[in-house]
Amino acid sequence: MARDAIPMTGEELTTLHPTLGSEVSQNLTLFHDVEPTTTSRSRLDYTFPEGGTKAWLVVSGSFCIIWGTFGLVSSVGLFQAYWKTHQLSNYSNGDIGWIPAVNIFFNLFLGVQVGPLFDRYGPKWLILTGSLLYVVSLVLLAECTKYWHFMLAYGVMNGFSGALLTTTALSVVAHWFERKRGMASGIAFVGSSIGGITFPLILKPVFQKLSWAWSMRIVALICLFLMAAGNFCIRGRLPPRKNGGAIDLRCFLDARFSWATIGVACFEFVLFGALGLIPTYSLSQGFSNQTGFNIIAILNAGSALGRSFSGYVSDRIGRFNTMLLTLIWTLVVTLGLWLPIGDNLVVFYVFAPLFGFGSGSIISMAPVCLGQLCRADEYGQYYGTSYSVVAFATMVCIPIGGELLPRIGATGFVAFFGGVLVIATVSFIMARWASLEYRWNWTAKI
């Protein structure tokens, strides 16, 4: 999307964008640069820096925040496996699964409130408040011994503070980038993958040598450093937006937004379900506990590459095009490798980075695709409205998966996730079609 783009009529949809025509022809001539149509919303004539020291410092700060928040969420399956064999050994996997499920739900659902607060007041106080509460929640988590302790400290408090941090960190990138927003957001999202690699590698020896309490204190110290870096680097830029509520139901009158929200909800159901249950799945297949640690780290390593790659490519062939390609990739990997894996450890290790590449690409593209449907000053509200729906999918994915795995077996468990991925893919096909005014144009850059 070019920063000087204006709404286009139906006749203009197949024309090449004047400012990017030469770049597209030099890079990927297959795709035509198309500005998605708008519905009763005009774009503000903002000029975006698209780079510079301040802009890249903001991306760096968002990277650190996402590392400490979503990076820890990416490792939550290790927590669940540890609780099952220690403090919560008397509870089922489904019961334990509600703890990270509530955390993820609050993390995403409270974006409904945080998004408009960000639009009105900017990032400073939201990031500072979220950082303090987040570190305190980890310190309290170190002292937990009972189910309700974990639910309050990790499920509620950590999830609430995580919402303040993640929504703000992702939204603020849109203040500084539009044409390069895909790449900038992808770089920020790599923080989640780096966290998903580093936290398992740190926790694996720490769990063996130290107590749960000291393990969590070490995690809290790491997150304190990351939050401090985020507070130092992140700055807002656009003027505050005075009007607009927490949820703008008019968003759902836009078919593009509705289909995209369904697609994101279905995919994140699969992603968080996989991250939360792969260690348990690994044990059910007869693999060692160490294999679960390794697979999570390798999956997140692939995710880091996918997030970087998708951001770069999406600015050239289009955000929705990139989303569709990576959804198809992930679906093929799921049904072609994960489904028939059985007890083949080699295939399990091959599957992990390939699935991580696809899932990392998709999750970094989701907020960028949503941002393409609105003005920059509305992004927080659009993001919050969409993820208020997505949150319900992420809340039930681990408990549902935890109950399905022992009941229908590993093959049925993976087949179920594959079916949900099919729905996600179809939803984004519909969102892309709606963006082109329901005309099939497979070469449009959208």
From TrEMBL:
PROSITE patterns, per database record: MFS (PS50850)
This protein's UniProt keywords: Membrane, Transmembrane, Transmembrane helix
Primary localization class, coarse: membrane
Domain of life: Eukaryota
Subcellular location: Membrane
CC per GO annotation: membrane
Start and end residues of each Major facilitator superfamily (MFS) profile domain: 55-436
Transmembrane segments: 55-78, 98-118, 125-142, 148-177, 184-202, 214-234, 255-279, 322-341, 347-370, 382-402, 408-431
Membrane-topology annotation of the record: Multi-pass membrane protein
InterPro entries: MFS, MFS_dom, MFS_trans_sf, Proton-linked_MCT
A single GO molecular function term of this UniProt record: transmembrane transporter activity
Pfam families per the UniProt record, alphabetical: MFS_1
Family membership noted in the UniProt record: Belongs to the major facilitator superfamily. Monocarboxylate porter (TC 2.A.1.13) family.
Name assigned to this protein: Major facilitator superfamily (MFS) profile domain-containing protein
